[in-house]
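Propose amino acids for all 373 sites.
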């Protein structure tokens, strides 16, 4: 039972956000303040390599549904608070950041779990709930492209070595949208329809946004619409930036099989809970239909810091490069990469102006690479 209850940590984050909107005023920052709490706890607590003892899909699904739909209610609570109280600029900023943060965690993590599900209803709701990210089609790029192209030059979510988060994120934001639009249009053309036929999912997303923003406008006017859309944009940008830490710099020869080694796992005790195992990512790439509570932590992989620590470090690229990712990649190249992957890795190192740690035989490990991992 305790393993089921752990995942209600995500609901506690949402509860903090709702409490802030219920109290009003400066308390609108309460939801966003949980970012600091989660980051601190994930940093100080030991990594969690435990398997979950959960067998009931029904009970395991409840916190996921709460996490997925909770941000929608959070945005409505923000609109309601703006309707009943005149808020100053800092309070509006606090409410906007709270909504943006909680649309990311637990929002997109729960929606990711749902749109990977086999059940049609669950998958559909997970897809369309992404409108809280100013999206609704992200799953198309994620499933059709990312899971196939991961760690190759074709993958939007794999940042080449030497790429800063500031360069990576705008490309990922635009790429996930454009790839999804293209894939949906191509699927319609294969059915003999126009690429922009009314069945295109983008029109459904536009309709959902128009209805939702109309409700926000009725409660809080144009300022409410501006704040809510800003929060959704923050959530979208933040979501795509987090892909930066899960595959950065890893290489794979196109057409070769995907291994657990092609993912950086971040097995923080808290992020595993509030992210519904999204940072326990390696096993997910082996079987994308595997529910979150059955994913196996990759003990043989290179241990990475908390994903939130990685995020803060990446905001200062030299810190990210020198203290986190270069040491990890050097070990990855020597212990996990295939000869073909090492060739691609060396090309990226040289293009980035990094140290060429392949240049001397002394830099190579005594034992062979663990390429089966």
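Proposal:
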């Amino acid at each position: 039972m305790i393993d089921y209850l752990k995942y209600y940590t995500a609901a506690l984050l949402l509860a903090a956000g709702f409490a802030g909107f219920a109290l009003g005023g400066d308390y609108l920052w309460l939801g966003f303040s949980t970012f600091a709490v989660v980051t601190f706890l994930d940093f100080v607590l030991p990594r969690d390599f435990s398997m979950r003892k959960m067998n009931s899909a029904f009970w395991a699904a409840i916190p996921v549904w709460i996490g997925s739909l909770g941000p929608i209610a959070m945005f409505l609570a923000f609109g309601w608070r703006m309707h009943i109280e005149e808020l100053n600029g800092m309070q509006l900023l606090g409410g906007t950041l709270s909504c943006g943060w909680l649309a990311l965690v637990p929002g997109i993590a729960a929606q990711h779990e749902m749109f990977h599900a086999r059940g049609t209803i669950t998958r559909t709701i997970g897809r369309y709930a992404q409108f809280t990210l100013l999206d609704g089609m992200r799953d198309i790029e994620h499933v059709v492209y990312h899971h196939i192209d991961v760690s190759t030059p074709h993958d939007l979510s794999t940042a080449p070595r030497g790429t800063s988060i500031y360069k990576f994120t705008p490309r990922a934001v635009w790429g996930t949208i454009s790839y999804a639009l293209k894939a949906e249009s191509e699927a319609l053309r294969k059915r003999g329809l126009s690429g922009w036929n009314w069945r295109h999912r983008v029109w459904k997303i536009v309709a959902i946004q128009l209805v939702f923003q109309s409700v926000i406008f009725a409660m809080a006017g144009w300022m409410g619409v501006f704040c809510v859309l800003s929060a959704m944009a923050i959530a979208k940008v933040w979501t795509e930036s987090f892909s930066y830490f899960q595959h950065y710099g890893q290489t794979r020869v196109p057409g070769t099989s995907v291994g657990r080694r092609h993912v950086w796992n971040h097995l923080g005790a808290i992020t595993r809970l509030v992210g519904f195992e999204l940072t326990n990512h390696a096993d997910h790439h082996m079987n994308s239909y595997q529910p979150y509570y059955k994913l196996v932590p990759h003990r043989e992989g290179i241990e990475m810091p908390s994903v939130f620590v990685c995020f803060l470090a990446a905001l200062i690229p030299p810190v990210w490069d020198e203290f986190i990712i270069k040491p990890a990649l050097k070990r990855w190249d020597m212990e996990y990469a295939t000869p073909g992957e090492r060739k691609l890795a060396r090309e990226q190192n040289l293009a980035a102006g990094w140290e060429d740690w392949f240049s001397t035989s002394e830099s190579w490990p005594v034992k062979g690479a663990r390429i089966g991992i």
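The chain has a mean pLDDT of 92. The radius of gyration is 21 Å.
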